[in-house]
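Sample entry (286 residues):
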Amino acid sequence: MNFLALDVETANADSSSICQIGIAEFNNGKIIDKWSVLINPEDYFDPFNIAIHGITERQVKNAPIFKDIYQELKQKIENKVTVHHMPFDRIAINRACDAYNLEYIQPKWLDSAKIVRRTWQEFAHSGYGLSNIAKHLDIIFTHHDALEDATTAGIIVTKACQITNLTIEEWFKRVGQPIFLYNKSSQIKLEGNPEGELYGESIVFTGALTIPRSEAGIIASKMGCSVTNSITKNTTMLVVGFQDSTKLAGYEKSLKHRKAEEILEKGFKIKIISEKDFAEICNLLN
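Predicted structure, serialized as tokens:
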């Protein structure tokens, strides 16, 4: 059983601003190789992102840009099973390719979050973030280091394979099936769409979007998200559209954006993404 696990860190809310990539290679449940590289994103570093992963503009000043490591990355993962936890890392690689007019790298992507949701019933609809699952499995790691996160995702997949007795190849089929394989006679009542790829996520939009916000909300709800207007400790995703500086009362970010960062700093898990990233997630899952 051979596969790779990949994770990225970004300089700001735009996922194309990759500043670190980490890859761990697994063979028969053991780590046989590791690769980590800092990248100059040629973009600004949001202080909030720096606080999360600790990577600064100064650290990557003389680092290669994404197109400089593109061929090496492609050689490592092209046509190979590559695990990523949630869609964001996969989307970041594609967005970085777009930024430099490079062809998409084509590994055999496998989302470890989908595997988690089908392996541990208690995390089928919520709580399947990397840090939470690592804690549940007593995996000690430094969160928000790309290599550490990649390694942890790989360990989680290895444990899932052992528990379910499914191979990596069999997991490709299983993640395309409903989370619960109920008999036809089973009668289950759940709110919303429990089989949606992002079921359990709670999403909020801020700023001006390129489509009506009501339309974006409908798209998100079809993917399983609950859609609300206010940031709370239960919010798991904030989509940031264009910020009109004349409406921000002297701030650089909207009230929702600032509140999301405050809640995240208190330990609650909120993913802050751009509208472009949200669109990529929609395209990927549909």
